[in-house]
Design goal:
Elements: E1 20-26, H1 31-42, E2 50-57, H2 62-73, E3 78-88, H3 92-96, E4 100-103, E5 108-111, H4 124-148, H5 150-155, H6 158-163, E6 167-170, H7 171-176
Parallel strand pairs: 1-2, 2-3, 3-4, 3-5
Antiparallel strand pairs: 5-6
Helix pairs in contact: 1-2
Amino acid sequence: MTGVIPNPNLPHSQQTNHSVFTITHVGAIDDNFVNSVINIVNSFQTMPTELILSISSGGGQVMHGITAYNYLKKLPCVLHTHNMGEVSSAAILPYLAGQIRTADAVSKFMFHPLTIGINAEMSYPKFQELLSMLDRDIINYAAIVEREAQQLCKTHDIMSVLKHDTLVVTAAEGHELGLLKDPVAL
């Protein structure tokens, strides 16, 4: 986390009887990101009515993106996710957890083929295990995108993108594709 700051310039933050807390994250989607979000939420004496998660990230690890998505979807408050400039790769997963999803006008989203790092010699069964894990990550990632951005999946084969292609969209294109919900910040 680069900082946790209240941000009165984002939507809904000036309503009466409406408590808002903002988490700003610039960096990788990794175990530090997930643990920071969990620790911040656990530190609340009273859960805010709205949690704003502002993200700028080139991605990270899909397993941590899925964990963040699952955790954020269960929060007992309105989750507003905001793209501050770039939400790419694994960062798309926690972004899609928002009931409200916005983006700055000059921002982008990028989907690309998933990868797995191999830095050592390994047996054939271990290699097969890694491929099976990668295949499952692709299936799980695609399921989240299909659930949260159905219009995108009507115009793009998300499984193909996650295996072979790259898809980069602007905030305006993201709005038309269903990545944004309530795009008041455009």
